């Protein structure tokens, strides 16, 4: 089973009013975590990046000045996923990342295809139940994943950390990685 563990950085929280400024992803085969392929790109938004977002992500206007357009970046991401598809995994993915992708496909007139996706927080909830703290940082702490040397809220760093967390959580639930232990959803990405 091919997995795409990914993260977006955006200019804000609303897919209707804010824009994607970075996409990073890791492609792995469940159970073969060391054979990963990487994808990352900055994305040129139409609006300025606020000082708050720059402070949080480290992404500046210089990073996105020569970056691809949202449509081009999303098409490249879709090609990275592959025509045969894969399961997409993001932290709060169905509510945040997948909504940004769907809204950008609509905004830029991109034809779409359906894709299976899931929220990595579902692994955490299945392991630790109703306990509070299903954000990425508490999960990393519980799993003993070090964030040393990794910039949080940079999509590349977050994908690196999330890949380790997903591998550990999935392995606790289904050690042979043959089935997905949590419920998946259906979202859209650009058609290739």
Automatic annotation (TrEMBL):
<keyword id="KW-0378">Hydrolase</keyword>
<comment type="subunit">
    <text>DNA polymerase III contains a core (composed of alpha, epsilon and theta chains) that associates with a tau subunit. This core dimerizes to form the POLIII' complex. PolIII' associates with the gamma complex (composed of gamma, delta, delta', psi and chi chains) and with the beta chain to form the complete DNA polymerase III complex.</text>
</comment>
<dbReference type="GO" id="GO:0006259">
    <property type="term" value="P:DNA metabolic process"/>
</dbReference>
<keyword id="KW-0540">Nuclease</keyword>
<dbReference type="Pfam" id="PF00929">
    <property type="entry name" value="RNase_T"/>
</dbReference>
<keyword id="KW-0269">Exonuclease</keyword>
<dbReference type="GO" id="GO:0003676">
    <property type="term" value="F:nucleic acid binding"/>
</dbReference>
<dbReference type="InterPro" id="IPR012337">
    <property type="entry name" value="RNaseH-like_sf"/>
</dbReference>
<dbReference type="InterPro" id="IPR013520">
    <property type="entry name" value="Ribonucl_H"/>
</dbReference>
<comment type="function">
    <text>DNA polymerase III is a complex, multichain enzyme responsible for most of the replicative synthesis in bacteria. The epsilon subunit contain the editing function and is a proofreading 3'-5' exonuclease.</text>
</comment>
<feature type="domain" description="Exonuclease">
    <location>
        <begin position="2"/>
        <end position="175"/>
    </location>
</feature>
<dbReference type="GO" id="GO:0008408">
    <property type="term" value="F:3'-5' exonuclease activity"/>
</dbReference>
<dbReference type="InterPro" id="IPR036397">
    <property type="entry name" value="RNaseH_sf"/>
</dbReference>
<protein>
    <recommendedName>
        <fullName>Exonuclease domain-containing protein</fullName>
    </recommendedName>
</protein>
């Amino acid at each position: 089973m091919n997995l795409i563990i990914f993260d977006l950085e955006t200019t804000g929280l609303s897919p209707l009013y804010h824009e994607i400024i970075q996409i990073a992803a890791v492609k792995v085969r469940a159970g073969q975590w060391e054979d990963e392929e990487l994808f990352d790109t900055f994305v040129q938004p139409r609006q300025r990046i606020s000082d708050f977002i720059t402070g949080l992500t480290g992404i500046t206007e210089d990073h996105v000045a020569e970056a691809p357009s949202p449509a081009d970046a999303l098409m490249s991401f879709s090609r990275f996923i592959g025509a045969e598809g894969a399961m997409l995994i993001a932290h709060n993915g169905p509510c945040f990342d997948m909504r940004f992708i769907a809204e950008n496909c609509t905004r830029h007139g991109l034809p779409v295809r359906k894709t299976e996706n899931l929220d990595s927080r579902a692994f955490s909830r299945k392991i630790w139940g109703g306990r509070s703290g299903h954000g990425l940082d508490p999960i990393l702490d519980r799993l003993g994943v070090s964030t040393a040397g990794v910039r949080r809220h940079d999509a590349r760093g977050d994908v690196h950390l999330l890949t380790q967390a997903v591998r550990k959580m999935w392995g606790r639930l289904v050690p042979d990685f043959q089935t997905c232990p949590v419920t998946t959803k259906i979202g859209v990405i650009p058609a290739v």
